[in-house]
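Example 323, ligand N,N,N-trimethyl-histidine.
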Amino acid sequence: MTATKKKIQFHDLHPKLESMRDEVFTGLSTHPKQLPAKYFYDQRGSALFDKITQLPEYYLTRCEISILQQYADDIARHIAPESILVEYGSGSSQKIKILLEAVQPAIYMPLDISKEHLLNSVNALATHFPDLAIHATCVDYSKPWKLPTLHDSHKPSIVGFFPGSSIGNFEPRRAIELLQRIHDAQGIGSNLLMGIDLLKDIKVLHAAYNDVQKITAQFNLNILHHINRELHGNITVDYFSHCAFFNPKHSRMEMHLTSNLDQIAHISGKTFHFRMNENIHTENSYKYSLNSFEQLVRIAGFKVDAIWSDDQQQFAIVNLHAV
Ligand code: AVJ
């Protein structure tokens, strides 16, 4: 027990509460109103997202996992042994387990904005991989950040793992900025394995974000619970409804919360008005073609080295090389 615990180191570059308050204030003061999607993920939000990944309509996770399983050995051949494996968002332990087994890195460094979620997942993982050195890092990687310095004699190669199509949450300009930041933090010669959701039949996309069990609706609404708890808010969550649709102009799924009536709410002592049918834009989820994705990463200094996809080309895992 204690032997496993020693293998875990925790780095807290802690995402600041003021920054959440500022971002929420700014978002709810712009027209149309918006909130950053990263605030879905408190402990309950992460649990709801885990449930989403099990839904029959939500093909993304299943598809990505089956690509990983099918091509793990081939993926590993594109990656140097004894590397540092950095995971952006310690989402699903299922995915990282497949990769850890195939790649066998010297160090696994998950980065996540949610401290509880991060600690829970690394503790569970450490029992599966008792010999793996884990450096769990709590950070908001959508802000400028540096990889924590490891006191290591040799300079191992760095492999980023950015699964789940989470890059899809960022507008192209922001996605490029984030990729440039990853490029800077990891350095030239490093690799970045990314999962991306591909453009497909709109009916399939629509169903994935409007599941019949309404788990996605709960997930979307949870951003309001998170704000209430973290920022002393009194938003009546029941007075908002989930809304998700495909926006063809931007090639993205959008999620919104629609106010069911005219209402006001207080957050950290500030008053906000919501008109009946007014939307809060909570998430974009960009759907790329392999071509448009290649163009995007090129701007940030990455070259596409290899692509793995499923038979139906629903999802892809791409190995990028920092040049
Ligand atoms: C984790 C950002 C990839 O965009 O599909 C799931 C989050 N939103 N259902 C996505 C999400 C609604 C998910 N990502």
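Summary: The first strand starts at residue 8 and ends at 12.
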